[in-house]
Amino acid sequence: MSTSRADGRSPSDLRPLSCTWDIAPQAVGSVLLKCGKTEVICTASVDEVVPRWMKEKGVAGGWLTAEYSMLPASTSSRKARDSSRGKVDGRSTEIQRLLGRSLRAVTDLTALGPRSLWIDCDVLSADGGTRTTAITGSCLALRRAIERLQLSGKMTADPLRTPVAAISVGLLNDQPLLDLNYPEDRDAQVDMNVVMTGTGRLVEVQAGGEEHDFSRDEFQSLLNLAHDGLQKVFAFQEKAWKARPTATPLAPPLAFRYACFLLMPTKSKSPKAKKSSSKSPKYVYSFGNGKADGNGKMKSLLGGKGANLAEMTRIRLPVPPGFTISTEVCTYYYDHKRTYPPALEKQIDEAIHKLETAMGKKFGDQKDPLLVAVRSGARDSMPGMMDTILNLGLNDRTVRALAERSKNER
After folding, report:
1. Both 227 and 278 in a single domain?
2. Domain boundary among 213, 242, 271
3. Most buried residue, 24, 151, 230, 349, by CB count within 10 Å?
4. Is residue 1 in some structural domain?
């Protein structure tokens, strides 16, 4: 009986594991997990709503669900996208349900609050064990997402009770093997996937023979091998977690960043904002409390509404505080392949802070939240920015705070 495998591993060896953090910058949490030649991107996204069935049944807390897919070039022959077939294939459906069950088993859904967490796993390269790699990586992505939600003040308690991970084992030529690669998985007499928590409890065991049966003793032997292998996986998870980059709080949604009166500008040529060689151009003009960065003569730069609000503030008319983003941002947006000026984000953050200071409230605060209105004020605006948005900042959590303060749930 052979004691080594084609790739040089012993029967009880894992494939090399590695983790790249924050691989998807737009996700709340993300990792690229590599297990040998198998590579899976795992991302966690947040949706501040719960499924309809939870609302209809009055179920407290949140929800966690998962999706799984293999990229067309993840296998040696191109794998057709589910979208081209018009439906998710049976294997992907099975795996994404397994992913959801595995993560919900270790998550306190009540502690999530009234929101949904979406876990998406996309296989870049498949060499066996894609579902087990997806589960192990998803746990890290979920943990990262929770960390950032806590940093942002959106979550206090940690809903992840314990880590979860998965591994494959199998019988090949009557030899128990840990962490099968694709050739081993293809030729195995028995194939088993084991999902286990960090406390050693089982979440799911999938075992089956291929033109072969197996005894209880063989089953137990494989289960023991998986248990021992998963201790190494949990140790890897913890090592990767300790080596993660410093987390950053979640940025406010784009609409939040355009706070009180977003007077979105025209594409026509506008005068350049004053700048010096040592400072970035000024794109954001605040107004309120009797002070304004702009004035009534700056209509080409601030738009009609922006200039008028600045002038009314300067002459001490009662104008709610806010800020205007200059026409140059729109010009820049179209001239630079629909991107924003590098200095814009910092200037918006500073303007939002001024707005919060002036009003004595903060966006998303669960006791006394700040609500704002967003308005475009020019003939040609950036796509999606012509609508007026009232009560921005109102959601399932802040509305409860307002109802409590007003003593009127209506």
Report:
1. no
2. 242
3. 230
4. no
What is the rounded distance in angstroms from the CA atom of residue 397 to the CA atom of residue 228? 44
Tell me the pLDDT tens digit for each residue of 253-293: 544 444 434 444 444 444 444 443 457 899 999 998 889 99
Same-domain pairing of 121 and 237: yes
Which of 216, 242, 268 delimits the end of a domain? 242
Say which residue the tokens 């200037």 belong to.
Answer: 347
- Alpha-carbon distances of 253 from 47, 74, 144, 259, rounded to whole Å: 12, 33, 19, 10
Structural tokens at position 346: 């910092």
Provide the token pair at 77: 């022959």
Please write the tens of the pLDDT for every residue from 19-71: 999 999 999 999 999 999 999 999 999 998 899 999 899 999 999 999 999 99
Distance CA 74, CA 54 (A): 36
What is the end-to-end Cα distance of the chain in Å, rounded? 75
Quick check: is 350 in a domain? yes
Half-sphere exposure of 144 (CA within 13 A, CB side): 33
Question: In this structure, what token pair is assigned to residue 140?
Answer: 């890290």
Amino acid at 122: D
Name the domain count of the chain: 2
